[in-house]
Amino acid sequence: MTSEREQAGSGKLADEAYRSVLADILSCRMPGGTVIQERKLALALGVSRSPMRDALNRLAGEGLLVRLTDRLLTVRVITLQDYLDSLDVRALIEPQAAALATPKVSVAEIAECNRLLGHIESVGMPTDEDHWAFDDFLHDTLADRSGNPFLARTIRDMRRYTKIFERQTVPARSGPGVADHRKLVDALVDRRADLVKMAMSDHIRKVRKRTLAGL
Question: Domain-by-domain residue ranges, the chain?
Fold first, then answer.
């Protein structure tokens, strides 16, 4: 009979495997269409197949893996329609979430937004890692501080799809998007929920426009 300690250990290993595979999917180290090799992944992470299977089932349940047969999983291909549909959902709920978050974001979190964005502004040609470190921090912080876990979860799920599509499809970024984010962060500094909401709506609209123009 499995002890509580063994169950907790297995759960921890499954969580670690989940985070590792998720990071590979979001960074496109595992692009859409990649066949999932459970045994190979388990060996690479130094875990047994049981926690790896739990992690893969979780990712399949979240829509990031597609089960073709009982034993065959592939990474989901995010289509242009998936991307546009996800942006549409974000456009409906993320501005409101950002407005709700405005009075709740801490001074330290705003300072970190400014630090990350200031670095991007100073280098002129940020790396993908620079861009996504800032983008993830800003959007995830606002989603979490909205105070509504359903909003936050939906925004995170939709951002996964848009992030994967952009990383696979959109050319390397430089200036575009920085001005949008600066407006948003400055409004956040001033605790102007109305301006934060407007800036977030404008940002998502421009992301859509720029992405379609670059395809």
Answer: 4-75, 80-214
pTM of the model as a whole: 0.85
Cα–Cα dist 171/128, whole Å: 10
Task: Kindly report the CATH class assigned to 80-214.
Answer: mainly alpha
The torsion angles phi and psi of 184, rounded to 5 degrees, stand at: -65, -45
The domain over range 4-75 is classified in CATH as 1.10.10.10: yes
72-84 confidence digits (pLDDT tens): 899 999 999 999 9
> What is the C-alpha separation between 88 and 94, in angstroms, rounded?
10
Q: How far is CA 163 from the centre of its chain?
A: 6
Q: What is the pLDDT of residues 44-65, one digit of tens each?
A: 999 999 999 999 999 999 999 9
Q: Which of 158, 61, 141 is nearest to 105 (CA)?
A: 141
Q: Count how many Cα atoms sit within 13 Å of the Cα of residue 6 in the half-sphere of its side chain.
A: 4
